[in-house]
Inverse folding.
Protein backbone atom coordinates (compact mmCIF):
# COMPACT_ATOMS: atom_id res chain seq x y z
CA UNK A 1 0.00 0.00 0.00
CA UNK A 2 2.74 2.40 1.02
CA UNK A 3 4.55 1.54 -2.16
CA UNK A 4 1.49 2.37 -4.34
CA UNK A 5 0.96 5.68 -2.51
CA UNK A 6 4.57 6.57 -3.04
CA UNK A 7 4.27 5.74 -6.74
CA UNK A 8 1.08 7.82 -7.09
CA UNK A 9 2.78 10.73 -5.30
CA UNK A 10 5.80 10.52 -7.58
CA UNK A 11 3.53 10.29 -10.64
CA UNK A 12 1.48 13.28 -9.48
CA UNK A 13 4.65 15.27 -8.72
CA UNK A 14 5.99 14.43 -12.17
CA UNK A 15 2.82 15.68 -13.88
CA UNK A 16 2.82 18.87 -11.79
CA UNK A 17 6.46 19.57 -12.68
CA UNK A 18 5.65 18.94 -16.33
CA UNK A 19 2.75 21.41 -16.23
CA UNK A 20 4.93 24.01 -14.49
CA UNK A 21 7.65 23.60 -17.08
CA UNK A 22 5.20 23.85 -19.97
CA UNK A 23 3.62 26.98 -18.51
CA UNK A 24 6.87 28.90 -18.84
CA UNK A 25 7.15 31.09 -21.95
CA UNK A 26 9.79 29.61 -24.26
CA UNK A 27 12.75 31.88 -24.86
CA UNK A 28 12.53 33.29 -28.38
CA UNK A 29 15.25 32.19 -30.75
CA UNK A 30 17.82 34.88 -31.44
CA UNK A 31 18.15 35.44 -35.17
CA UNK A 32 21.54 35.67 -36.80
CA UNK A 33 22.68 38.69 -38.79
CA UNK A 34 22.09 36.72 -41.98
CA UNK A 35 18.54 35.80 -40.98
CA UNK A 36 17.69 39.41 -40.12
CA UNK A 37 19.19 40.53 -43.42
CA UNK A 38 17.05 38.04 -45.34
CA UNK A 39 13.98 39.36 -43.53
CA UNK A 40 14.91 42.91 -44.51
CA UNK A 41 15.31 41.91 -48.17
CA UNK A 42 11.92 40.17 -48.13
CA UNK A 43 10.33 43.18 -46.42
CA UNK A 44 11.62 45.61 -49.05
CA UNK A 45 10.43 43.33 -51.86
CA UNK A 46 7.00 43.28 -50.20
CA UNK A 47 6.92 47.10 -50.04
CA UNK A 48 7.73 47.26 -53.77
CA UNK A 49 5.16 44.61 -54.71
CA UNK A 50 1.92 45.54 -56.57
CA UNK A 51 -0.02 45.52 -53.30
CA UNK A 52 2.77 47.17 -51.35
CA UNK A 53 3.49 50.78 -50.41
CA UNK A 54 2.64 53.41 -53.08
CA UNK A 55 5.60 55.60 -52.06
CA UNK A 56 8.13 52.75 -52.20
CA UNK A 57 6.76 51.64 -55.56
CA UNK A 58 7.28 55.10 -57.06
CA UNK A 59 10.96 55.35 -56.13
CA UNK A 60 13.83 55.04 -58.61
CA UNK A 61 17.60 55.13 -58.28
CA UNK A 62 17.46 58.83 -59.13
CA UNK A 63 14.79 59.76 -56.58
CA UNK A 64 16.66 57.91 -53.82
CA UNK A 65 19.97 59.72 -54.36
CA UNK A 66 19.23 62.43 -51.79
CA UNK A 67 18.24 59.86 -49.16
CA UNK A 68 21.44 57.90 -49.69
CA UNK A 69 23.56 60.99 -49.01
CA UNK A 70 21.38 62.13 -46.09
CA UNK A 71 21.53 58.74 -44.40
CA UNK A 72 25.32 58.65 -44.69
CA UNK A 73 25.60 62.04 -42.97
CA UNK A 74 23.10 61.00 -40.29
CA UNK A 75 25.31 58.00 -39.54
CA UNK A 76 28.24 60.38 -39.02
CA UNK A 77 26.15 62.59 -36.70
CA UNK A 78 25.03 59.57 -34.68
CA UNK A 79 28.60 58.30 -34.47
CA UNK A 80 29.75 61.64 -33.08
CA UNK A 81 26.89 61.79 -30.56
CA UNK A 82 28.17 58.78 -28.62
CA UNK A 83 24.63 57.34 -28.54
CA UNK A 84 25.05 53.69 -29.57
CA UNK A 85 21.30 53.10 -30.00
CA UNK A 86 21.09 56.07 -32.38
CA UNK A 87 24.26 54.93 -34.15
CA UNK A 88 22.84 51.44 -34.73
CA UNK A 89 19.51 52.90 -35.88
CA UNK A 90 21.12 55.19 -38.45
CA UNK A 91 23.40 52.39 -39.69
CA UNK A 92 20.23 50.40 -40.31
CA UNK A 93 18.75 53.26 -42.34
CA UNK A 94 21.90 53.37 -44.47
CA UNK A 95 21.79 49.60 -44.96
CA UNK A 96 18.18 49.91 -46.10
CA UNK A 97 19.31 52.18 -48.93
CA UNK A 98 21.59 49.41 -50.23
CA UNK A 99 18.73 46.91 -50.05
CA UNK A 100 16.31 49.39 -51.69
CA UNK A 101 18.59 50.08 -54.67
CA UNK A 102 19.32 46.36 -55.04
CA UNK A 103 15.61 45.55 -55.08
CA UNK A 104 14.98 48.07 -57.86
CA UNK A 105 17.85 46.57 -59.87
CA UNK A 106 16.55 43.04 -59.26
CA UNK A 107 13.11 43.99 -60.56
CA UNK A 108 14.77 45.20 -63.76
CA UNK A 109 16.81 41.99 -64.08
CA UNK A 110 20.17 43.77 -63.66
CA UNK A 111 21.57 42.45 -60.35
CA UNK A 112 20.43 41.31 -56.91
CA UNK A 113 21.52 42.08 -53.37
CA UNK A 114 23.28 38.69 -53.39
CA UNK A 115 25.40 39.97 -56.29
CA UNK A 116 26.24 43.08 -54.28
CA UNK A 117 27.39 41.03 -51.28
CA UNK A 118 29.31 38.54 -53.42
CA UNK A 119 31.12 41.34 -55.27
CA UNK A 120 32.30 43.09 -52.12
CA UNK A 121 33.27 39.78 -50.48
CA UNK A 122 35.38 38.72 -53.45
CA UNK A 123 36.90 42.19 -53.72
CA UNK A 124 37.96 42.22 -50.07
CA UNK A 125 39.63 38.82 -50.48
CA UNK A 126 41.43 39.99 -53.64
CA UNK A 127 42.63 43.20 -52.05
CA UNK A 128 43.97 41.54 -48.91
CA UNK A 129 46.52 39.10 -50.34
CA UNK A 130 48.61 39.61 -47.19
CA UNK A 131 45.75 37.95 -45.25
CA UNK A 132 44.22 35.49 -47.73
CA UNK A 133 47.22 34.87 -49.98
CA UNK A 134 50.98 34.56 -49.97
CA UNK A 135 51.83 38.28 -50.18
CA UNK A 136 53.13 40.05 -47.07
CA UNK A 137 52.76 43.68 -45.95
CA UNK A 138 55.00 45.12 -43.27
CA UNK A 139 52.75 48.06 -42.36
CA UNK A 140 49.51 49.92 -43.20
CA UNK A 141 51.28 52.13 -45.77
CA UNK A 142 52.33 49.08 -47.76
CA UNK A 143 48.79 47.69 -47.52
CA UNK A 144 47.45 50.90 -49.08
CA UNK A 145 50.04 50.86 -51.87
CA UNK A 146 49.16 47.24 -52.68
CA UNK A 147 45.46 48.15 -52.56
CA UNK A 148 45.92 50.86 -55.21
CA UNK A 149 47.96 48.53 -57.43
CA UNK A 150 45.27 45.84 -57.23
CA UNK A 151 42.56 48.41 -58.01
CA UNK A 152 44.50 49.51 -61.10
CA UNK A 153 44.80 45.90 -62.25
CA UNK A 154 41.07 45.38 -61.71
CA UNK A 155 40.21 48.43 -63.80
CA UNK A 156 42.26 47.06 -66.67
CA UNK A 157 40.78 43.56 -66.39
CA UNK A 158 37.19 44.81 -66.29
CA UNK A 159 37.71 47.37 -69.07
CA UNK A 160 36.93 50.38 -66.89
CA UNK A 161 39.42 52.64 -68.69
CA UNK A 162 37.37 54.58 -71.24
CA UNK A 163 39.80 54.20 -74.17
CA UNK A 164 42.63 51.75 -74.62
CA UNK A 165 44.87 54.45 -76.05
CA UNK A 166 44.14 56.77 -73.12
CA UNK A 167 47.19 57.36 -70.97
CA UNK A 168 46.96 55.47 -67.67
CA UNK A 169 47.17 57.58 -64.53
CA UNK A 170 47.55 56.77 -60.86
CA UNK A 171 44.66 59.19 -60.34
CA UNK A 172 42.26 57.00 -62.35
CA UNK A 173 39.31 55.80 -60.35
CA UNK A 174 38.45 59.00 -58.48
CA UNK A 175 34.72 59.47 -59.22
CA UNK A 176 33.97 62.78 -60.93
CA UNK A 177 30.62 63.06 -59.18
CA UNK A 178 32.13 63.35 -55.70
CA UNK A 179 31.70 66.57 -53.71
CA UNK A 180 34.74 68.79 -54.32
CA UNK A 181 36.23 68.29 -50.84
CA UNK A 182 36.04 64.51 -51.11
CA UNK A 183 37.41 64.55 -54.65
CA UNK A 184 40.35 66.72 -53.58
CA UNK A 185 41.02 64.43 -50.63
CA UNK A 186 41.12 61.33 -52.83
CA UNK A 187 43.32 63.01 -55.44
CA UNK A 188 45.89 64.11 -52.86
CA UNK A 189 45.82 60.69 -51.19
CA UNK A 190 46.59 58.95 -54.48
CA UNK A 191 49.36 61.43 -55.24
CA UNK A 192 50.83 60.89 -51.79
CA UNK A 193 50.84 57.11 -52.21
CA UNK A 194 52.81 57.63 -55.43
CA UNK A 195 55.44 59.58 -53.45
CA UNK A 196 54.30 63.08 -54.46
CA UNK A 197 53.91 64.70 -51.05
CA UNK A 198 55.41 67.16 -48.59
CA UNK A 199 58.08 65.99 -46.16
CA UNK A 200 56.23 67.57 -43.23
CA UNK A 201 53.31 69.84 -42.37
CA UNK A 202 55.55 72.93 -42.50
CA UNK A 203 55.69 72.74 -46.30
CA UNK A 204 51.90 72.61 -46.55
CA UNK A 205 51.52 75.64 -44.27
CA UNK A 206 53.97 77.51 -46.48
CA UNK A 207 51.91 76.57 -49.52
CA UNK A 208 48.81 77.91 -47.78
CA UNK A 209 50.54 81.24 -47.14
CA UNK A 210 51.61 81.38 -50.79
CA UNK A 211 48.06 80.71 -52.05
CA UNK A 212 46.61 83.25 -49.62
CA UNK A 213 49.02 85.92 -50.89
CA UNK A 214 48.07 85.15 -54.49
CA UNK A 215 44.38 85.42 -53.63
CA UNK A 216 44.95 88.81 -52.00
CA UNK A 217 46.80 89.99 -55.11
CA UNK A 218 43.97 88.83 -57.40
CA UNK A 219 41.47 90.57 -55.12
CA UNK A 220 43.41 93.84 -55.31
CA UNK A 221 43.45 93.54 -59.10
CA UNK A 222 39.66 92.90 -59.09
CA UNK A 223 40.06 90.08 -61.61
CA UNK A 224 36.99 87.90 -61.06
CA UNK A 225 38.29 84.90 -63.01
CA UNK A 226 41.65 85.05 -61.24
CA UNK A 227 39.95 85.39 -57.85
CA UNK A 228 37.94 82.22 -58.49
CA UNK A 229 41.05 80.36 -59.63
CA UNK A 230 43.13 81.44 -56.62
CA UNK A 231 40.28 80.70 -54.23
CA UNK A 232 40.16 77.17 -55.66
CA UNK A 233 43.92 76.81 -55.21
CA UNK A 234 43.63 77.98 -51.60
CA UNK A 235 40.81 75.54 -50.84
CA UNK A 236 42.74 72.70 -52.48
CA UNK A 237 45.76 73.53 -50.31
CA UNK A 238 43.52 73.44 -47.20
CA UNK A 239 42.20 70.01 -48.22
CA UNK A 240 45.76 68.81 -48.76
CA UNK A 241 46.70 70.06 -45.29
CA UNK A 242 43.70 68.25 -43.81
CA UNK A 243 44.78 65.04 -45.53
CA UNK A 244 48.35 65.50 -44.28
CA UNK A 245 47.06 66.00 -40.71
CA UNK A 246 44.79 62.94 -41.08
CA UNK A 247 41.60 65.00 -40.89
CA UNK A 248 38.65 64.40 -43.21
CA UNK A 249 37.91 67.92 -44.56
CA UNK A 250 34.25 67.12 -45.28
CA UNK A 251 33.62 65.97 -41.72
CA UNK A 252 35.64 68.85 -40.27
CA UNK A 253 33.67 71.38 -42.30
CA UNK A 254 30.36 69.76 -41.34
CA UNK A 255 31.36 70.08 -37.68
CA UNK A 256 32.31 73.73 -38.19
CA UNK A 257 28.98 74.38 -39.90
CA UNK A 258 27.11 72.81 -36.99
CA UNK A 259 29.12 74.85 -34.48
CA UNK A 260 28.36 78.09 -36.32
CA UNK A 261 24.64 77.23 -36.46
CA UNK A 262 24.56 76.48 -32.70
CA UNK A 263 26.23 79.76 -31.80
CA UNK A 264 24.11 81.78 -34.21
CA UNK A 265 20.90 80.34 -32.74
CA UNK A 266 22.18 81.13 -29.27
CA UNK A 267 22.76 84.75 -30.33
CA UNK A 268 19.18 84.88 -31.59
CA UNK A 269 17.93 83.45 -28.30
CA UNK A 270 19.87 86.00 -26.24
CA UNK A 271 18.60 88.84 -28.43
CA UNK A 272 15.03 87.66 -27.95
CA UNK A 273 15.55 87.52 -24.17
CA UNK A 274 16.66 91.16 -24.35
CA UNK A 275 13.44 92.00 -26.19
CA UNK A 276 15.08 92.75 -29.51
CA UNK A 277 15.05 90.99 -32.89
CA UNK A 278 18.53 89.84 -33.84
CA UNK A 279 18.37 91.60 -37.22
CA UNK A 280 17.88 94.93 -35.39
CA UNK A 281 20.89 94.51 -33.10
CA UNK A 282 23.86 96.77 -33.85
CA UNK A 283 26.92 95.13 -35.41
CA UNK A 284 29.13 95.76 -32.37
CA UNK A 285 26.53 94.21 -30.09
CA UNK A 286 26.25 91.21 -32.40
CA UNK A 287 29.97 90.64 -31.95
CA UNK A 288 29.48 90.75 -28.18
CA UNK A 289 26.65 88.25 -28.42
CA UNK A 290 28.86 85.97 -30.53
CA UNK A 291 31.61 86.05 -27.90
CA UNK A 292 29.03 85.38 -25.19
CA UNK A 293 27.69 82.40 -27.13
CA UNK A 294 31.22 81.03 -27.50
CA UNK A 295 31.91 81.44 -23.76
CA UNK A 296 28.64 79.77 -22.87
CA UNK A 297 29.39 76.82 -25.13
CA UNK A 298 32.87 76.36 -23.71
CA UNK A 299 31.56 76.57 -20.17
CA UNK A 300 28.92 73.95 -20.95
CA UNK A 301 31.63 71.64 -22.32
CA UNK A 302 33.74 72.12 -19.18
CA UNK A 303 30.76 71.50 -16.89
CA UNK A 304 29.87 68.36 -18.82
CA UNK A 305 33.43 67.06 -18.58
CA UNK A 306 33.55 67.81 -14.85
CA UNK A 307 30.30 65.94 -14.29
CA UNK A 308 31.64 62.71 -15.79
Amino acid sequence: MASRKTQRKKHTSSRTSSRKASSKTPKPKELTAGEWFERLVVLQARLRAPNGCPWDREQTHATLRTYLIEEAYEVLDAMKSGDDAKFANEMGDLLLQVVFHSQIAAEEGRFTVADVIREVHEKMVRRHPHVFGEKRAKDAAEVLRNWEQIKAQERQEYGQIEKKEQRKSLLDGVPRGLPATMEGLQLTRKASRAGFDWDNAHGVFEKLREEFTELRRATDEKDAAKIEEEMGDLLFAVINLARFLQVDPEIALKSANAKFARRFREMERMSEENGQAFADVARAEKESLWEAAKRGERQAVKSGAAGK
The longest helix spans residues 249-273.
